[in-house]
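Researcher: Re-running this chain for the archive, since the previous output was lost when a drive failed. Same request as before.
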Amino acid sequence: MSHPTRRGRARAATEQDIRRTARKLLVEQGPEAVTLRAIARELGITAPALYRYYESRDDLVENLRLDVCADLADDLAEEIAELPDDGILQLFAICKGFRRWALTHTKEFTLVFASPTGGVGSAAGSALSRVDEPFGRIFLAAAGRVLARTDIVLPSAGNVPDELRDDFTTFQESLSAVLSEADHDVPVEKLDLGVTYLMIQFWARLYGHVTLEVFGNYPIPMSKPDVLFEAMLIDLAREIGLYSG
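Model: Regenerated C-alpha cells:
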C-alpha cells in the first residue's frame, strides 16, 4: 500500500489550513469576507501562493461549501443514528435538525443555501440540487425509507406541469440512483414523476420556512416561529397521509 509523500502530506496540511482559515472568516464575518487576500493575510503568505492549491476563489469556495455540507450531514447522521429505524421519525428529525443547524450556523447556511447564482459563493447553489452530495443523500435516503416502507398518498404524475417534465425526469433518475446506493428497495411505481414533484415541493416548503426564519423575513412579527414550523411539518405529513390528527 502506498503512503503519502512528505510533500504530499505538507500540501494536504496546507490545504486544510487554507480551508480552516476560510471557514473562520466565513463564521466570523460572513461569505463576503472569504477572499484570497484575507486568507493569505491570516496565514502570513502572499495571495498568489494560494493559486498553488486552488485555481480561483470560486474553487476555494466550492471546497469550503463541500466541507460545510459534509459537516452538516455528519451531524444529522449522528442524530438519527440514535433514533429507531423508522423512516418517518428520521425524516422529520432531519427537517428539525436542518432548521436548528441553520439558526445556529447562519453564515454557513448563507454560503451553502442562500448565495445567489453569480453572487457570493457563486459555485454553491442549493445543496439539495446535488443529490449525490452528503446532505442531499441523507435527506433523500430518509425519504426513500418512507417510500419503501410506508403507505402514503401518492400524487398523480399528471399533476406535473408539462413544462417541468424534463426537469423532473432528470431528478427522478438521480433520485433512483441515490436510493439504490442506499439499499432502499423502493417500488418502481413509487418513483414516478408525481413522487419526485412531491419531494421538491416538500423541500421547497421546508427550505422556504427556514430561510424566512434565518433572515427574519416573515411579513409579520413572529413571536413563536417554532410553533409555525411544527405546524408546517404536520401539514406536510397530513398531505401525504402520514398524520391524521
